[in-house]
Target: RNA helicase
Amino acid sequence: MLLLLLLGIGSAPPGLWEVQDLLQEEPLLLLLLLLPLTAAHSLGEIGGASVSPPGRDCLGCAKTGSGKTAAFVLPVLQKLSQDPYGIFCLVLTPTRELAYQIAEQFRVIGKPLGLRDCIVVGGMDMVAQSLELSRQPHVVVATPGRLADHIRSSNTFSLSRIQFLIMDEADRLLEQGCTDFTKDLEVILGALPAKRQTLLFSATLTSTLQELQSVTMNKPFFWESKTRTVDELDQRYILTPEKIKDAYLVHLIQTFTDQHSDWSIIIFTKTCKDCQILTMMLRKFNFPTISLHSMMKQASVLRTVETQKAFPKVRFANLSKFKASVYKILIATDVASRGLDIPTVQVVINHNTPGLPKIYIHRVGRTARAGRNGVSITMVTQYDIHLVHAIEEETQSKLKEYEVEEKDVLKILTQVNVTRRECEIRLEATDFDEKKEVHKRKQLILEGKDPEMEAKRKEELEKIKKQKKKFKERIQESVQQQQAEQRERNHLKKKRRLEQKKAKLESK
Model:
């Protein structure tokens, strides 16, 4: 109790006192002392339920940057310290970058206990990963696709004694869309024991609550924060025409870099191509810019497991450079919107208005973390007003307008548009779109699908769509023709009646 009093938590949630009582290992108690107040409160609510006997399943929905990772790392390490063996805990994440971040946090907190971890993500050497898994690490942090591949193709490791299954960003893992993890999750869950503790966390959980409840094996403890974004986040918008959006972006970055040279900025874009073009354009304006998107190379074949850990390639290298403030501006797709914790990020700019409120929540959650202040600015065109209203309804907060001197933006408009067009031409010369198609084919092959069959299926779907479109057009034409004929008949009837009236008047 003394440790919590030193923290200055006079009215902490009951679960936090319980966690403090149950964390018997001295290194873990010291780490609890170092937690930020926001993280301590999340740990109290969620961690108290997950660490206390008989070990209930948990569904945790908390604001971004509120300490959800600590809420599962510390209880897992406490249980592991009582009976250490491998493989003890499995953590699933939707992105590779988040997997590395979680593994790093496990490594730092678990170092006094001699924790052994293993990262299993795509883009890395499968043989090296198999060797690591065969050494029975205590904690495995993985993306579903690559772990499912190992389960299908290898028998050098077993997940049958797992005590904890943790899904971070659980709503993303369980949603069905462009990246569907359903088949991979079925393979993974089939390899896990029925008796286990399942912990699921996200900042946006309610939309997939029924699916999450079906995954858990016993009556789950559900905890949800009342608000979706933190009070320290200053949420703003700029209403701008689509054609001058880039000029506003350049002006914003110039303003922030002039006023706060130590600030880091993340700019989110809709597509990989936009991400690449904006990176090239901002470099032309001498801004220290780096990019992060799914079309970038992940890693080459590495010689040893040690070098695999120490020498991640382009995507991880770029992220590391941004974290180390070598580059102050990161332009990224939504691959960077989940879970990444970078303390120096003070500003998040949405180059496009997110189509879904939950995407917005995760994007702006990259700043104002762990009690720090931050600013988010969303660029809104005349076509995005309804999206802003949906975001405001979900976050229960009103976005304020960010004041910008339009005359300053118009001064650089021509220069920005010309520079962007130059960058588009340069990118087209590198066959970026063709590489994207090759990348898609590789992804289909990794998913066990035949690219040719998928292409034929798409062609058939396009034909069906075209046929439906033509059918609708024919129906519309037929309806319009009937309406025109009816109007013509009505006109003739009216004309005939007028002629008859005229004839009667003349006869009189």
Observations:
- Residues 451-507 form the longest helix (57 residues).
- Residues 1-25, 36-42, 48-53, 298-312 have pLDDT under 50 and may be disordered.
- The chain has two domains: 2-224, 233-430.
